[in-house]
Design brief:
- The chain has 162 residues and is mainly alpha-helical.
- The protein has a single domain, classed as Arc Repressor Mutant, subunit A.
- 70% of the residues lie in helices and 10% in strands.
- It is built from 6 helices and 3 strands.
- The protein has helices spanning 3-32, 36-48, 53-60, 64-77, 98-119, 124-150; strands spanning 51-52, 80-85, 88-96.
- Strands 1-3-2 form a 3-stranded antiparallel β-sheet.
- The protein is globular, with a radius of gyration of 20 Å.
- The N and C termini lie far apart (48 Å).
Length: 162
Amino acid sequence: MSKDGFAEKIAMQFRLLQQSFDAFDEAVAARLKLNRTDLRCLDVVLGGGPLSAGQVAAALKLSPAATTTVIDRLERAGYVLRSRDAANRRRVLVEATGAARKVEEEIYLPVGEAGAQALQRYDQDQLATILDFLQTARKVQEDQTTRISTSPDAAAPPADRE
């Protein structure tokens, strides 16, 4: 197969992979009775907590008010707790609860384990290539997100046709 042929097949697999991630996130959000923004927030807190509310807002790219609303919903659902930072009493920290850790253990850890198992078929050089590819793909995606987010020439929605 030509390099262009591989690139085309890889692009299609990326599209399908993104759709599978989206479907998984949708299924998890439905199971937990959360919306997708709340689920993203839970992931951020599970991955890096305890975090200040400002750190959560930056990670989610949400305003402080919107972040407070998300944290409120997650707190009511029993997935996060707020506490005062002992070093700075004005700062609020957000951390995952035991219920959130149980979600991580029952839903997310099996995904990681299955992925690790699937990678066993590759040798060390292939794993290095996969890692490099994923890092490159993430960088491309981040650059394109920035391009779209900062472009003044963003496409306007089509006009209503009546």
